[in-house]
Amino acid sequence: MRVSGFFRxxxxxxxxxxxxxxxxxxxxxxxxxxxxxxxxxxxxxxxxRQAAGDTAGAQAAINQMPVDQAQKVVAVMTNxxxxxxxxxxxxxxxxxxxxxxxVILGFGLEDNGAMRPILVERLTKGLAVAQAYPAFxxxxxxxxxxxxxxxxxxxxxxxxxxxVSGTRIYTEESAGSTQANAINTAALMRQNGxxxxxxxxxxxDHTRRSVADFLVAGIxxxxxxxxxxKIQSAPMSTSGVAAVYRDARGVAKI
Length: 254
What we know:
This protein has helices at 13-25, 36-51, 55-63, 67-85, 117-132, 151-161, 178-191, 207-216, 238-252; strands spanning 2-3, 88-89, 101-105, 138-141, 169-172, 197-202, 220-226, 236-237. By secondary structure, it is an alpha/beta fold. The strands form 2 sheets. It has a 6-stranded parallel β-sheet with strand order 2-7-6-3-4-5, sandwiched between helices. It has a two-stranded antiparallel ribbon with strand order 1-8. β4 (138-141), α6 (151-161) and β5 (169-172) form a beta-alpha-beta unit. α1 (13-25) runs antiparallel to α4 (67-85) and α7 (178-191) runs parallel beside α9 (238-252). The longest helix is centred in the N-terminal third of the chain and has 19 residues, at 67-85. The protein is elongated. The chain starts with a strand and ends with a helix. Residues 1-14 and 23-31 have low confidence and may be disordered.
């Protein structure tokens, strides 16, 4: 099964909302008692079936879970659906709400600490957004140090060289994965009183996974900007959608 990055997803928004409604208005009484092992098995089953397009099978597994776990599963599914259908652009977005942060995702450095072209592309697009919104703080996120330099440190150096004020730039230097980018950035934004709105800048082939992770981490995405010209990356396979779910589950810790 192949899925359009813009207009379709394995999980339709209508189906996700229907699942939530079932939890809210389902049969009276407590959810069936299940062991931790059973809950884990049911959770795996629900995500596997949902990613494969079997919404009814996912619903059946969800209906057997304790209510609190079912609500967590539905929340992740809903956010993944939003990620799979989120509008992308390679242009600087207009009308972004005040108080939003610009978040630029890192990419692995060369062994000597130099930035790879993909990371420069992301920074170039992030700089354009930053110039359009000069009051917005900028978060650069990425650890994985090479030659004693993290991705975030290299990104900050590049932005400073382009004339961006250092007072605008916040570095998150611990993340070694997209999941950690999302979790750590959300924490940094809270700690600095930014609120939860962000414009996310990454590469086209990385957008769906990163959007899902940031939504699950509690970030409200005002826009998602692809650094390259491929606004629509290749249609996602079933395995690709399953990978998005796995990543999002990691952020949610379920």
